[in-house]
Amino acid sequence: DLCKSINGLDKVLLRESRGSSAEVYLYGGHVTSWKSDHGEELLFLSSKAIFKPPKAIRGGIPICFPQFGGLGTLDQHGFARNRFWNIDDDPPPFPTNTLSKAFVDLILKPSEEDMKSWPHSFEYRLRIALGPGGDLMLTSRIRNTNSDGKPFSFTFAYHTYFSVSDISEVRVEGLETLDYLDNLQNKERFTEQGDALTFESEVDKIYLSTPTKIAIIDHEKKRTFVVRKDGLPDAVVWNPWDKKAKAMADFGDDEYKHMLCVEAAAIEKPITLKPGEEWKGRLELSAVPSSYCSGQ
Ligand code: TA6
């Protein structure tokens, strides 16, 4: 259902038959809530999030397009998360999500303004769907619609903020032994040590050529988030920790203890599309009891 939220921005509520739900703001095409079938919130949304354009909403799943980070000429993380998307009432067939009954299709095209800072025309169709087991699936289809024959390249991330009970009790499996660029050390390249990641200070790493599946284990909740991705070879892991948290007006001082960003991304090798070509980037999130998960 489409409704007006308390802060005046339109949002879509998705409800799956067994009780799981999600909320998506047309502003930013931004998922701000994903709840399990017993109503537990699985994404982090800052209590100080600002729902006022052009500020991006702090938390949920910001869409970083056409640029991840500050790696180019646009504002940090591009402009898709700062624009009003439209409901797409004429979507192309999305064979991958045929199972879902609860979904919404959104579309973003560049404004005149956008074309000044990023002189390319594109159609970005985003489907947000809840699967039968309460999984959250995001499918992005980005097509180059340039009429001047020009290709374009972009970097991308689903900047997902997971809700965790206590960051010092969280482990991430699937990124050990991989190379990463450390944003805290001039993006220098390092190799990760050999066992699951744990967290005791600020982290901001871009892991390269990562597996299609990453597990985020919340010890206290006995819950594991499973991130499955397709078309997204990299993964960013970010927690601002205390100092950076205090420096962000839209982030509570202690909130870093209850969140971890693990972001399915395409950063190291920008994606290049010729006119008419389309790129697809899929993200599938599930939350499972931890006892089933380690080593799966
Ligand atoms: O994804 C990690 C990161 O690039 C960090 O460097 C930090 O800047 C974070 O994104 C949040 O960026 P934002 O523009 O949303 O404040």
From TrEMBL:
Catalytic activity of the protein: alpha-D-glucose 6-phosphate = beta-D-glucose 6-phosphate
GO biological process terms on file: carbohydrate metabolic process
Catalytic residue list: H159, E263
Gene Ontology, cellular component aspect: cytoplasm
Molecular function terms, GO-annotated: carbohydrate binding; glucose-6-phosphate 1-epimerase activity
EC number of the protein: 5.1.3.15
Record field: transmembrane: none
Annotated positions binding substrate: R58, Q76, R81
Key word Transmembrane helix present: no
Keyword list, A-Z: Isomerase
EC category name: isomerase
PANTHER family linked: APOSPORY-ASSOCIATED PROTEIN C-RELATED (PTHR11122), GLUCOSE-6-PHOSPHATE 1-EPIMERASE (PTHR11122:SF13)
Family per record: Belongs to the glucose-6-phosphate 1-epimerase family.
Protein name: glucose-6-phosphate 1-epimerase
